[in-house]
Amino acid sequence: MAKFPENFLWGGATSAAQIEGGRCEDGKGLSHLDYVYFRGPKIPCNFMLTENLRKARAEEATLNFPNRRGIDFYHRYREDIALLAEMGFKSFRMSISWTRLFPTGREEKPCPEGVEFYHNVFRELHAHGIEPLVTMIHYELPIGFVEEFNGWESPEIIPYCVKYLKFLIDEYKDEVKYWLTFNEINMVTAVPWLGGGILLDKDEELELPKGFRPFGPLPKKMEERWNQVSHQALHHQFIASALVVKYAHDTAPGCFVGNMYNLHHLYPETPSPQDALRAHEETEFNMFFCDVMAQGSYPKWILSYYRKHGIHINFVKDYEKILAEGKVDFISLSYYLSSVVTADPARQERVGSFIRRLQNPYLETSDFGWQIDPTALRISLNELRDRFHLPIYIVENGIGAFETLGEDKTVHDDYRIAYLRSHIEAIGEAIEDGVDVIGYTPWGCIDLVSCSLVSMSKRYGFVYVDADDEGNGTYDRYRKDSFYWYKKVIASNGEDLE
Ligand code: BG6
Asked: 458-494 burial, b if ≥16 CB within 10 A, otherwise e?
């Protein structure tokens, strides 16, 4: 087994919306994720249309909003951090909630209780020798910005966001060394509501066929609108990100700022040149998000892609300079599954929660239909090394499963151990291949609210949280079998995976 570097950052990952709870406490405002309501443990949230937000607003008293409860980390962070420390964590990925600091996003001064909460969390982490890895924006934006600006579609959001991001650097730079700007920045094009707070039908009437589902082929008008709005929004996020990267470099030497994108390895379905070309194009498309943030410019091909697809980007003044000056220090990524590409647009099936491609007949699948493929991670890590020559931080990976607490007050999650073992092996092999992987923080180290399903039923943790989809339960924490296994992995620096 390959040796992981001595200072390898073993840890785990979370996000504010999915763990904190206390969503209306101490002056906190609500974000767009606080309006996503539970519809069933296997039904992905679909919030692309205004009517859904209208419903959430109108039925606020009766709908179930699991993100508002999280797992009560807001009150239990000391207990939780002690559990992470017991596993030997070196690194803890968390995000800061924009609306806990600036409730509507427009305040001149931040909310003091919110500012103090994150200081307390960082102090607690450092007291246990755990390095925080902080995502500045893990999807969330103030709900008012959805309603006024249609989220990231409008450039008007940029100054408010940059003010918030610069505040984070100024306030926390002595406690936080590793930062990520936008979580899974490619999600704004894949799921515009989630990644950008964008309603696709804002200001225009889109005629949707009866029984419309987001996973089938899209109506033409919606496809066009989707492309246009999401790439414009992405441009605004690139700008905000680059501005804060430069600011961090100028004012907080010693900080490392990374991008964060959802890595999705693709295989052509057949050796036909058409399938291969399609897979190549989609891979390039996925890499483009890193190209802009790591190389500091838009690749030429995406500009001709925009022309071909009638996408017109209103580039922000001086954008080339801004991007060139705001290149990230490392690449970070989430990785869960791979999928298969066909050149035939009519043959699409649901892959993961939101993607339209094909399942791979050679792979096993989780309870939630996500296919398990550690080899693709190794391949992709090698590709990223060749393209960017930057350190790589794997900041999400894991398997979501239905689980219940046994009478012995634990969960025997051997499937999770098997999943993580195979992925750690693949990372070790990539390190032997010469990839500079600096850390690994599996997702949902403590059970948390699923993002795509807004449910507690999909669990990723080493620690079980006694809470259900309706918020019933004690919220007490219990160590699963994987807890003890991961502790051994960390103690042996990745040598002991048994
Ligand atoms: C990533 C997100 O896409 O996947 C996380 O950054 C999310 O927020 C994770 O929770 C797993 O997805 P899900 O839908 O299973 O929670």
From this structure: bbbbbbbbbbebebeeebebbbbebbebbbebbeebb
- In terms of Cα–Cα distance, which of 340, 485, 335 is closest to 410? 485
pLDDT under 50: residue ranges of the chain: 209-213
Give the span between the Cα atoms of 472 and 466, in whole angstroms: 8
Write down the pLDDT at residue 367: 86
Give the count of beta carbons closer than 10 Å to the beta carbon of residue 308. 8
φ, ψ of residue 110 to 5 degrees: the values are: -75, 165
Terminal CA-CA length for the chain: 12
Element (H, E) at 178: strand 178-182
Residue with tokens 């094009």: 189
**CA-proximal residue: ligand 1, atom 9 (nearest):** 451
Evaluate whether 325 touches 242 at the Cβ level (below 8 Å): yes
197 vs 191: CA distance, rounded Å: 9
Q: Compute the C-alpha angle 39/40/45, nearest 5°.
A: 50
184 is catalytic: yes
Beta-carbon count within 10 A of 346 CB: 6
Strand partners, 358: 340
Give residue 356's identity as a one-letter amino acid code.
Answer: R
Of 93, 294, 105, 78, the closest CA to residue 176 belongs to 93
Kind of pairing between the strands at 477-479 and 463-465: antiparallel
453, 42 contact by CB (below 8 A): yes
Q: Which is catalytic among the residues 20, 124, 184, 429?
A: 184
pLDDT at 43: 81
Interatomic CA distance for residues 478 and 148, integer angstroms: 43
pLDDT for res 208: 54
* Whether 60 is catalytic: no
Torsion of the alpha carbons at 361, 342, 195 and 231, rounded to the nearest 10: 170
| 382 Cα–ligand 1 center, Å | 24
Q: What is the pLDDT of residues 107-121, one digit of tens each?
A: 999 999 999 999 999
Q: In whole angstroms, what is the distance from residue 69 CA to residue 25 CA?
A: 11
Give me the residues paired with residue 182 across strands: 137
396, 403, 425, 429: which one is catalytic?
396
Residue bearing tokens 């937000």? 53
- Report how far ligand 1's centroid is from the alpha carbon of 398 (Å): 10
Looking at residue 19, its pLDDT comes to: 98
> Measured in angstroms, how far is the CA atom of residue 218 from the centroid of ligand 1?
24
Domains of the chain: 9-491 (3.20.20.80)
Query: Can you tell me which atom of ligand 1 is nearest the CA of 449?
Result: 16
For 403-432, write each residue's pLDDT tens digit.
Answer: 999 999 999 999 999 999 999 999 999 999
